# Entry
Amino acid sequence: MPQRYNTILETIGQTPCVKIHKLAPKHLNVFVKVEAFNPMGSVKDRLALGIIEAAERAGELKPGQTVIEATSGNTGIGLAMVCAQKGYPLVVTMVETFSVERRKLMRFLGAKVVLTPAAEKGTGMVNKAKQLAQQHGWFLTRQFENEANPDIHSLSTAAEILQHFSDIPLHYWVTGTGTGGTLKGVSRVLREKSPGTQIVVSEPDVAAQIASGIPQARNTDGSPAASHPAFKPHAMQGWTPDFIPKLVEDVMLANNIDQNIPVSNAEAMSCSQQLAQQEGIFVGISGGATFAATLKLAEKAAAGSNILCMLPDTGERYLSTPLFANVPSDMNQEELSISLSTPDFQL
Ligand SMILES: Cc1ncc(COP(=O)(O)O)c(C=O)c1O
# Structure
């Protein structure tokens, strides 16, 4: 059958599972699931489509109604694509510290971006989105609590993982958490359909909220009442907001986390660059962080183990961040001497 799609939305998901060669220890197999293959370059395209279509089915979202969400970027970019294709106006609230290219991408796709002060952290952008939704009657997607978020991961991401490992066992599945949608949606399916798989979660070492064992203070609607005491700012954009999302707490209460591995900012950035330079796999800081946790796990795992690491997004989203801080735009000495090595060189 010739492969043609009716809309771009049909291309979301079915991302590849790729084996790591140079960076993985030789006694086991490390695979990565490359979510950058989604049309807007991140795992969040899945959630965007899942939440909008669930709201359409439930009659909560009316034709032409404005959609609003608080997002560190990737959800907003995914939603901007989905809303553009389906004809919904979109407003996004975002902390001013997230990378500039994320804002520009959303605006390019037709969304409005409202920035919230850095001092108010993730909680500030969530509260602003709630207030705007209430005031204007907009549809608030509530990615941090909406069950349509884990549901789409159970239906798509988890089903793909089971298919990738239908002929060999999956011993470990490694992920980070943003909203917890990936973690909740995939972990519950693995627990049921692949009970031998250990679920491994990685957190920033400076914001190890899940590992801390300290409960999150909540409002009656499940939203966070205050920042979590174990939170400190970290470099893994899209990971670990300043509160434990309800979806993550659900997974903790269900005892669906087998191991928790802390990762530093420097380890994350180094792994992102190593994946690019040694495996040709181009991912963001959180992908580097998840891979750093995977390598720590691999050091201790039994020979012959199969490990799958989630890589949430593309590295292209981080050009203005510390990930690219040491990448010059001008020629360095080595490049200059290569250039000067032709006899007729003229600047
Ligand atoms: C950039 C980025 N987006 C998304 C996710 C996963 O998000 P969620 O927990 O919302 O499914 C992560 C987690 O690793 C991430 O780093």
About this structure: Residues 148-164 form the longest helix (17 residues). The beta strands are 17-19, 29-34, 67-70, 90-95, 112-116, 139-140, 172-175, 198-204, 259-263, 306-311. The chain has two domains: 8-37+157-324, 44-140. The radius of gyration is 21 Å.
